[in-house]
Structure formats: C-alpha cells, structure tokens
Design a protein that fits this description.
The chain contains four helices and six strands, in the order H-H-H-E-E-H-E-E-E-E. The protein is an alpha+beta fold. It is globular and about 65 Å long. Strands 2-1-6-5-4-3 form a six-stranded mixed sheet, covered by helices on one side. 39% of the residues lie in helices and 43% in strands.
Length: 132
C-alpha cells in the first residue's frame, strides 16, 4: 500500500512540474520568427506591452510599436541564423531563453527572451538583442 501511495504522489509531483513549464512551441515559434526576421510572427506572441532592448536603446512598447521597431532592426540586420542555447525558469515564474542571432552583415547578437503566462498562454514580456 505504501508503494502505491508513493507512486501516486510521484506521478502527481511530476505532472505538476510538467504543467508549470511553457509549451516548447512558444520558444520554437519565436525562434523561427527571429531566424527568418519575421516581425509579424514575433509580434503575435507579444504581450500587450513589451520591454524591447536593441543594443543600448531600451524602451517599453505596445505590440504594434515593437513590431515596427523590429521591422527596422531586421531591415538593417538580415538574419542568417538563430539558435537557442539555454532555457530556464526564473524566480518570478517567468520562463526564459537565451540564443544567438547571426546576420548577413556579419554581426552576432545575444538574444534574451522572457515569457510569462497570461491566462492559458505564454506571451513575450521582454526581448533583448545585445551585439556581441
């Protein structure tokens, strides 16, 4: 009986941990948008406002404003590749990913993504592009 109860508790604990992780598709879709330079694909995963940093320019934008800023960024920095190198959970319950963006201009950017759960979905709250 103790083994059965222990097994039930273990299954419940594992299910609870899995339920708190963001669906991997959120990072996959964002990564595809960054890799292709598709600001529209990115913007559909943004919260209503987003903290966006490109180099030393840091601001909070509406979804539509952030889309325009990214359009300008991708126009001057045509992506050739993007790879997520690390994912994790923050203390505040947000999920994050860190990746590297390479461009046709020979530049490389470290990209930081922070997503938070809003209702039943995860949305990007912060996005940073820092030139390496």
């Amino acid at each position: 009986m103790k083994k059965l109860i222990s097994l039930a508790v273990l299954i419940f604990a594992l299910a609870s941990i899995k339920a708190t992780l963001p669906p991997p598709e959120i990072f996959d879709e964002i990564a595809a948008g960054i890799k292709s330079g598709d600001e529209k694909m990115l913007a559909k995963n943004f919260n209503s406002s987003i903290d966006l940093t490109i180099g030393t320019v840091e601001n909070t934008y509406s979804r539509a404003q952030a889309e325009q800023v990214l359009r300008e960024f991708f126009t001057g920095n045509k992506p050739t590749g993007f790879t997520i190198i690390h994912q994790g959970l923050s203390k505040e319950g947000a999920k994050y990913a860190i990746g590297t963006l390479t461009t046709a201009q020979g530049k490389s950017f470290r990209v930081y993504l922070y997503v938070k759960q809003v209702g039943n979905t995860y949305l990007v709250n912060e996005l940073r592009f820092m030139q390496e």
